[in-house]
Amino acid sequence: MRNLLTDIAGVSVGHATDLSLGSGVTALLFDTPAIASVAVFGGAPGGRDTHMLEPEMTIAAVDAIVLSGGSAYGLDAAGGVQAWLREQGRGLEIRGLRIPLVSQAILFDLANGGYKNWGRYSPYLQLGYAAAAAATDKDFALGSAGAGTGATTATVKGGLGSASTRTSTGHIVAALVAVNAIGSPLIGDGPWFWAAPFEVNAEFGARGWPASMPEIASALRFKGGPATTIGIVVTDATLTKPQAKRLAIMAHDGLARAILPAHAPMDGDTIFAAATGTHTVADSATLTELGHAATLTMARAIARGVYEATPLPLAGAQQSWRQIFG
Question: What is the CATH number of domain 5-321?
Answer without folding.
Answer: 3.60.70.12
